[in-house]
């Protein structure tokens, strides 16, 4: 699957960023819609097995936090490269030509990196052929897992709120706080996620993953909520809020994935099957649904508030942008923090589950199953 996704990902990226000049408005919409559909499809074909293999790399409770923390830090370099490229494109004389060459470079780089790294990526033989159910039964097994169900609800709620930053930051910068350097805002948001990732890796050993994630969601809620007070000329206030939003967002980028890997072990304990792919698929589905709903809600609110592009916005529209960017994510993060208090699968319970799984030495032959447990760790 990862090999299959490599080249189409690169081609779709070029198509999205470099549509033919002769397309009219309707044709351009169709072109971009098809390009995005292809890109999202092949990206999912890569994301799910890649994430599944990541879950298999280690069964150690704290090593998983370290793994996903380092993975997130590496990802920040890609984000930084993308933001820097956007800045160069904005400053270029021929933006279309710059976008074309940039997309060619990015497409070739992505396809090459995926092909090479996938070729050298090991896969655990003992984890293959361990799922005997059909896709629908497996999907419902994920939802039956009480820890997974709670984690997915929290992840969906927080993704719904957090997606407003990517959708509305440019609108808020241009029409509400009157700041020209939108890229700098995103850099300030990403910077603490990179800088503090090693701290979250160490601190989670003391506080536990759940408690640290709760603290991060509260920080995110306060940071986003404080943006409601931002107005024209409040650059320092905006930068400060975005910085601390990044501090909180860093925990949400590292800890949920590590916790998800733990509950895959719990699922194996109760069903005798390894379902990394199913969990990553549902996780990815929740992310896409939440982001889509956020875009739909934002679009409706902007439309009914009287938004008009490239003109001075009326007070109602400015307030709508401000409330959507500040209060909606703040509320979602607070709800997520409260729900996380119900998450109980901690280090001690995971250690007991792993000890039982190791004792059973689960068979790896296709169609074989481990003894079914009632799931006392709930």
Describe this structure in words.
The protein is mainly alpha-helical. The longest helix has 37 residues, at 235-271. Helix 3 (61-91) packs antiparallel against helix 7 (182-195). It has helices at 2-17, 25-56, 61-91, 95-120, 135-144, 146-176, 182-195, 197-207, 209-226, 235-271, 276-304, 315-340, 347-360. It contains 13 helices and no strands.
Name its key features.
single chain; 378 residues; mainly alpha; Growth Hormone, Chain: A; 13 helices
Helix and strand arrangement:
Blueprint: H1 2-17, H2 25-56, H3 61-91, H4 95-120, H5 135-144, H6 146-176, H7 182-195, H8 197-207, H9 209-226, H10 235-271, H11 276-304, H12 315-340, H13 347-360
Helix pairs in contact: 1-2, 1-4, 2-11, 3-4, 3-7, 3-8, 3-10, 6-10, 6-11, 6-12, 7-10, 8-9, 9-10, 9-12, 10-13
């Amino acid at each position: 699957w990862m090999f299959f996704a490599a080249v189409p990902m690169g081609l779709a990226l070029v198509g999205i960023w470099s549509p033919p000049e002769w397309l009219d408005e309707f044709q351009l919409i169709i072109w971009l819609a098809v390009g995005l559909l292809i890109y999202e499809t092949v990206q999912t074909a890569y994301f799910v097995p890649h994430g599944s293999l990541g879950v298999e790399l280690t069964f150690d409770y704290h090593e998983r936090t370290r793994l996903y923390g380092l993975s997130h830090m590496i990802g920040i370099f890609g984000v930084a490269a993308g933001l820097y490229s956007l800045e160069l494109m904005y400053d270029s004389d021929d933006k279309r030509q710059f976008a074309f060459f940039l997309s060619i470079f990015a497409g070739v780089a992505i396809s090459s990196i995926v092909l090479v790294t996938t070729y050298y990526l090991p896969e655990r033989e003992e984890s293959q052929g361990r799922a005997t159910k059909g896709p629908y039964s497996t999907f419902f097994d994920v939802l039956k897992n009480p820890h997974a169900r709670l984690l997915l609800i929290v992840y969906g709620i927080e993704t719904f709120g957090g997606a407003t930053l990517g959708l509305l930051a440019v609108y808020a910068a241009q029409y509400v706080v009157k700041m020209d350097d939108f890229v700098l805002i995103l850099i300030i948001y990403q910077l603490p996620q990179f800088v503090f990732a090693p701290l979250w890796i160490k601190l989670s050993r003391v506080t536990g993953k759940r408690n640290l994630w709760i603290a991060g969601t509260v920080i995110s809620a306060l940071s986003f909520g404080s943006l409601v007070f931002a107005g024209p000329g409040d650059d320092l206030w905006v930068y400060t809020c975005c910085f601390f939003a990044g501090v909180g967002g860093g925990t949400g980028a590292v800890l949920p994935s590590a916790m998800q890997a733990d509950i895959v072990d719990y699922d194996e304990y109760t069903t005798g099957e390894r379902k990394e792919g199913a969990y990553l698929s549902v996780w990815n589905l929740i992310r896409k649904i939440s982001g889509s709903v956020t875009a739909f809600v934002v679009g409706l609110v902007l439309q009914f508030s009287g938004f008009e592009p490239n003109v001075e916005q009326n007070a109602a529209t400015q307030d709508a942008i401000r409330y959507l960017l500040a209060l909606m994510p703040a509320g979602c993060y607070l709800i997520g923090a409260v729900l996380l208090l119900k998450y109980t699968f901690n280090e001690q319970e995971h250690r007991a589950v792993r000890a039982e799984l190791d004792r059973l030495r689960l068979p790896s032959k296709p169609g074989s199953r481990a003894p079914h447990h009632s799931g006392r760790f709930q």
